[in-house]
Amino acid sequence: MNEPAIDGGRLWASLMELAQLGATPAGGCNRQALTEIDAQGRALFTSWAETIGCRVHTDAIGNLFARRDGTDPDAPAILLGSHLDTQPTGGRFDGVYGVLAGLEVLRTLEDLGLHTRSPVIVASWTNEEGARFPPAMMGSGAWAGEFDLEATYATADKDGVTVREALSAIGALGETPAEPFPVKGAFELHIEQGPILEAEQKTIGVVTGVQGIRWYDLTLTGKPCHAGPTPMEVREDPVQTLGEVLTRLYPIATDHAPWGRATVGDLVTEPGSRNTVPERIRVTVDLRHPDQEVLEAMHERLGALCTEQNRRGAVQVDLEEIWYSPAIRFDDGCLDAIRTAVERTGDPSMEIVSGAGHDAAYVSRVAPTAMIFIPCRDGLSHNEAEYAKPEDITAGANVLLNAVLALDAS
Questions:
Q1: 12-25, pLDDT tens digit by residue?
Q2: DSSP string, 305-335
């Protein structure tokens, strides 16, 4: 390859070194947001960035930015990055790969004496995972103006520690406002977290957008009674009703294959006694689709299902939407820069839609944005067995480097 290339061995070594912070016995990472281990990861990234002359600062929600100046002090920035926090039983690549690949781009530019017109900034967004503090993608959402900062500060973890307290405790409560700055284009490099690239034997996914996501709380309320004496035909049993609902819920997704998704992720019965028909069931529902109109149709169909169920039976079915992230189409200019990069590197690639939410989703609301995926083994992520091959790690970072150069030249 004649194009500028990153040092794949150096990038892999950095990933493995950072993976030691919060390392789990099964080979994964537990580096949850705004913990002392997270602070150590931030400090290591900062030291690496400062070693190559970057200026590093933290904003008011703890987002970390490493800047390499360009030749034009007035030019809008090219923004790279992802996140350093993990799930409690997370892997070594989710999020951190995008941050350290961005750092490797800066290292390579420095090594080669290449000077971009635009400054290049690598971001580590705070609390992307949402494992300790809800919601997910907190730092990028606050930066993009989607979350009220004071309300976000007041969010508490399960131990009652607020975001503001946690930021202060690790020295990450920066004075710079958490708000957008001029950005020419933003790129987030990430493992796919799904099986498509591996199955198609493609090294690079050119991510054209992110699925729309709607989250709901579904509550079914019946009448508690004794499991023995109460005949089946007179019960107001929310579990039986849930069975009827679920048989009609999943077709909402499968009727919109291949991209429709419907997931019941959590289910709690109350009072939760073995020999009592439950009074109430609380269920979470997650609907996803990359086409905004289709997602809206799925939403309406779920609502109609619940309304019809209420007409048919004694069990009350209540549906509450608690979060909505519209489907996103990424910026054509950023996508063209990635396509140009792939042409330069010669890697086998395909266009793909992200099924998961990423910081790029919020960044795209205030700046031109696109994403790059590489395969991960068996599509596993949010799992200690998460793995990406070193050669794919290198290939993705080379595409990122060349996308930066292509966008800077445009």
A1: 999 999 999 999 99
A2: HHHHHHHH-SSEEEEEEEEEE--EE--HHHH
pTM: 0.87
| Relative orientation angle of helices 36-51 and 96-112, to the nearest 10 degrees | 10
The CA distances from residue 218 to 71, 160, 264, 319, in Å, are: 54, 26, 10, 5
Q: Is the peptide bond before 4 cis (omega within 30 degrees of 0)?
A: no
Query: Where does 104-182 show beta strands of DSSP type E?
Result: 120-124
Rounded Cα distance, 78 and 369, in Å = 10
Q: One-letter amino acid identity for 326? A: P
The residue-averaged pLDDT of 179-200 equals: 97
191 touches 204 (CB < 8 A)? no
C-alpha distances in angstroms, 229 versus 222, 226, 241?
Answer: 17, 6, 20
pLDDT at 54: 98
* Amino acid at position 112, single letter: L
Rounded CA-CA distance 306/323 in Å is: 18
The one-character DSSP state at 90 is B
Contact 282, 270 (CB under 8 A): yes
Cα 408 to chain center, whole Å? 26
What DSSP element (H or E) covers 100?
A: helix 96-112
Omega of the bond prior to 88 within 30 degrees of 0, cis?
no
Closest-CA residue to 145 (of 327, 369, 322, 366): 366
Alpha helices in 25-95 (DSSP H): 36-51
Residue matched to tokens 């729309």: 212
* Residue 123 backbone class (left: φ over 0; alpha: ψ -120 to 50; beta: rest): beta
The CB density around residue 110, as the number of other CB atoms within 10 Å, is 15
Structure tokens of 276? 């009592």
Q: Which residue has the tokens 């800066």?
A: 106
Single-letter residue type at 223? K
Contact 241, 286 (CB under 8 A): no
Contact 279, 235 (CB under 8 A): no
Instruction: Assess contact for 82 and 60: CB atoms under 8 A.
Output: no
Nearest to 407 by CA among 232, 164, 75, 184: 184
Classify residue 112 by burial, with Cβ atoms within 10 Å: 0-12, 13-18, 19+: exposed
pLDDT of residue 1 exceeding 60: no
